[in-house]
Request: fold
Amino acid sequence: MSNFSQLKDLVMSLEADFEKFYDKGNSAAGTRVRKGMQELKNMAQTIRTEVQNKKNDGGGDAAPAKAAPAKKAAAPAAKKAAPAKKK
Reply:
């Protein structure tokens, strides 16, 4: 749960910069927002990987879910018609 707390803290820390950028037009705050959002993206990816690994190792605390029904295969894409020949 430590990662989740860090994620929440990061989002809350960006609030002031979001307000400065969107409400006051402060471009430097926009740069900080972009930097923070990149950090958020990286943290989210780390958490996703951690969750997936824990799930695959059987280390999750959640009850096993029922298997989802298989998805139907997508219909093959129609071939494009050949261009008309010039006379």
Notes: The chain has a mean pLDDT of 82.
